[in-house]
Amino acid sequence: MTESPHAYRVLLLTELCDSERNVRRMTRALKNTALQQHRIPVDKALQILNEESPPLVVDRDKLKELLDKVVTKTEGYEVYKLEKLYAVLCQSIYTHRLNYNKTALIQELEQRIQDF
Asked: What is the top-level taxon of the source organism (predicted)?
């Protein structure tokens, strides 16, 4: 991976704090973050912001039913088990994050809750 001079400047960032000079420790994660930052022209950013997005499709009644089911099913669960269910549901939500029609997401959540 080639690294730009700008990335090195970010990596070697120094901060003045309370009149003392502190050097920020460069970790691998911080280095990768600096290298992954991409700037886009203002015109392109404005174009993206002005694009029309499709309508969001959510069956709110089905979602409410799903919430009631999960509350009933998890009655008396300990925290660790609730955290596991939360993680499973978050995976589905993340998978469907770009879909504006949430019907398939609700069906998948329903199946995952049923299988849990």
From this structure: Eukaryota
**Cβ count near 95 (within 10 Å):** 12
Residue ranges in the chain assigned as alpha helix (H): 5-11, 28-36, 42-50, 60-73, 79-95, 103-115
- Specify whether the CB–CB gap between 113 and 69 falls below 8 A: yes
The percent of residues in the chain predicted with pLDDT above 70, rounded, is 78
**Between 103-115 and 79-95, two packed helices, what is the crossing angle to 10 degrees?**
150
Q: Where are the chain's structural domains?
A: 5-50, 60-115
How confident is the model over 73-111, as pLDDT tens digits?
999 999 999 999 999 999 999 999 999 999 999 999 999
Please report the pLDDT score of residue 17 as a whole number: 42
